[in-house]
């Protein structure tokens, strides 16, 4: 397959999301950033009053140079002098023309040490074209006796997921190129009017919100979900004609299984069905998953979860091997967040859990202070946590007590909020 060619406008979308994401992790700056919405918008840190210091600018420049592997062409220093995502996009294009190749995606670092995973451009391009084939096949195999439920051909891709992450990049940048259709970046709280033939790219938390929002959309809209398993009840709400909570259910909703390390590996369109391997992926003799490279060689994919094979090309996802949870499209370790809280001098012990009663779910904390809690101490700690934690790891509530909650067996237990 030919490698999909990126234009400067495609790189601008990535640079905007990358800059927005990096700045949002900087203490005290996330509240001053605008929402991630328009595909024509820029992130300009010279004109927004962010007043980034030299260390912050180095962090930004390093993130941009690493994403596009500008070091391959000796262009890494050019990013430091730039002050907007649009300027970054121009430098990235020059770097790519001069020899910078492939793309490097970073994990959040909230499930352990932050990792950078370099992916080959031709492999990602092949994957996007494989997903285009999957979409066509799924639509072609729709029930011929129920033509009203058969999705129309994709005519636009509406992107809610950030495009500098591998999921958003493959589905929100490369897939539209493979399909030859426009991509429109949007915010799930301010979603533009949808049209038949739209394909909506979102993460599970966003789908949960949309399932309860009764957002009016027409028949013939499809959806894609990835970065974590989508709750079965949410999936059913979005596709079930009998649910009654939507003016029109989604014509199709695909869940994509994969990770930053592997990219997409498999899909399913029904929460009770197993995942089916994507084209170019096969089950290995050892029970893992292998990827067919453009060269014809097979590469082992590091599957991070427990799976149960039900056929040579289908499997059930059993559980995550690590203890991370999904918050706003990010995999976050509650233990890591608790460790960050305990770096504060006032905190003696802390526990963090996912509050699933909130929509979308958010983290909550139980904190034990070295000295008796007072309103002033609590306020100071909460303000510190707001500025110190990444936006996706921010706490919806903090509860205080003399000891961490335990059950009768002496094990950690939940607490009311």
Which SSEs are present, and which pair or pack?
Blueprint (H helix, E strand, L loop, with lengths): L7 H17 L29 H14 L17 H13 L5 E4 L9 E4 L1 H20 L15 E4 L6 H14 L3 E3 L12 E5 L1 H10 L8 E4 L6 H8 L12 E8 L3 E6 L6 E3 L3 E3 L5 E4 L5 E4 L3 E5 L4 E7 L4 E3 L2 E3 L1 H8 L5 E9 L6 E8 L5 H14 L6 E6 L17
Parallel strand pairs: 3-4, 3-5, 5-6, 6-7, 18-19
Antiparallel strand pairs: 1-2, 7-8, 8-9, 9-14, 10-11, 11-12, 13-14, 15-16, 17-18
Helix pairs in contact: 1-2, 1-3, 4-5, 6-7
Descriptive account of the structure:
The chain is an alpha/beta fold and 417 residues long. It is built from 9 helices and 19 strands. It has a 9-stranded mixed sheet, with helices on both faces. Helix 4 crosses helix 5 and helix 6 crosses helix 7. The chain is globular, with a radius of gyration of 22 Å. About 1% of the residues have low confidence.
């Amino acid at each position: 397959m030919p490698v999909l060619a990126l234009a400067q406008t495609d790189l601008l979308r990535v640079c905007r999301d990358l800059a927005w994401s990096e700045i949002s992790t900087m203490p005290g700056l996330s509240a001053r950033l605008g929402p991630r919405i328009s595909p024509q918008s820029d992130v300009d840190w010279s004109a927004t009053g962010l007043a980034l210091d030299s260390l912050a600018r180095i962090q930004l420049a390093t993130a941009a140079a690493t994403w596009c592997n500008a070091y391959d062409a000796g262009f890494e220093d050019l990013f430091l002098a730039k002050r907007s995502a649009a300027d970054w996009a121009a430098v990235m294009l020059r770097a790519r023309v001069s020899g910078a190749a492939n793309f490097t995606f970073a994990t959040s670092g909230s499930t352990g040490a932050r990792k950078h995973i370099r992916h080959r451009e031709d492999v990602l391009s092949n994957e996007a074209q494989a997903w285009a084939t999957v979409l066509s096949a799924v639509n072609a195999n729709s029930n011929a006796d129920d033509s009203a439920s058969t999705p129309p051909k994709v005519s636009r891709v509406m992107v809610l997921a950030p495009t500098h992450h591998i999921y958003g990049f493959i589905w929100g940048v490369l897939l539209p190129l493979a399909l030859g259709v426009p991509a429109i970046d949007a915010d799930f709280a301010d979603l533009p009017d949808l049209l038949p033939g739209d394909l909506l790219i979102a993460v599970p938390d966003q789908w949960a919100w949309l399932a309860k929002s009764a957002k009016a959309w027409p028949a013939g809209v499809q959806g894609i979900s990835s970065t974590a398993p989508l709750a079965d009840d949410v999936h059913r709400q979005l596709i079930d004609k009998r649910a009654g909570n939507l003016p029109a259910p989604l014509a199709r909703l695909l869940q994509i299984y994969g990770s930053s390390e592997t990219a997409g590996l498999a899909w399913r369109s029904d929460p009770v069905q197993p995942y089916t391997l994507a084209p170019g992926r096969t089950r290995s003799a050892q029970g893992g998953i292998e990827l067919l490279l453009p060269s014809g060689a097979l590469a082992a994919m590091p599957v991070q979860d427990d799976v149960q094979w039900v056929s040579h090309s289908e499997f059930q996802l059993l559980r995550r091997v690590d203890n991370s949870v999904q918050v706003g499209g990010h995999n976050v370790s509650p233990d890591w967040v608790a460790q960050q809280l305990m770096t504060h001098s006032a905190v003696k012990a802390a526990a963090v859990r996912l509050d699933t009663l909130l929509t979308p779910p958010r983290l909550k904390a139980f904190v034990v202070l070295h000295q008796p809690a007072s309103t002033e101490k609590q306020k100071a700690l909460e303000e510190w946590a707001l500025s110190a934690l990444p936006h996706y790891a921010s706490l919806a509530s903090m509860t205080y007590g003399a000891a961490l909650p335990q059950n009768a067996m002496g094990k950690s237990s939940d607490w009311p909020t």
